[in-house]
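From the shared-data thread, chain only:
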Amino acid sequence: DAGDEGKDSFSLSLYQNGGCSGSPYQGTSPDSGGNYSFSNLPAGNWCLSLLYSGSSVLPGNPQSVSVPSGITIPVNFAIQPPG
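Structure, as tokens:
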């Protein structure tokens, strides 16, 4: 969102079939603005996990995502400041 501070010190893993276990289908790290993307995903159910140490991740981690064919789905995470 506007005014949010991006973090480049975390990584995201995307798992196929809705469960966050096994080997990730794809992984990425956000840019300095906190933006990330996964490309060329087949339609289906996915699990997105954010890996970050030092503070809590909100609203929940991991997140389940259903991706229809040919559609872009935004998924946002918020990192709660320590303390």
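The beta strands are 11-16, 26-28, 44-51, 57-58, 63-67, 78-79.
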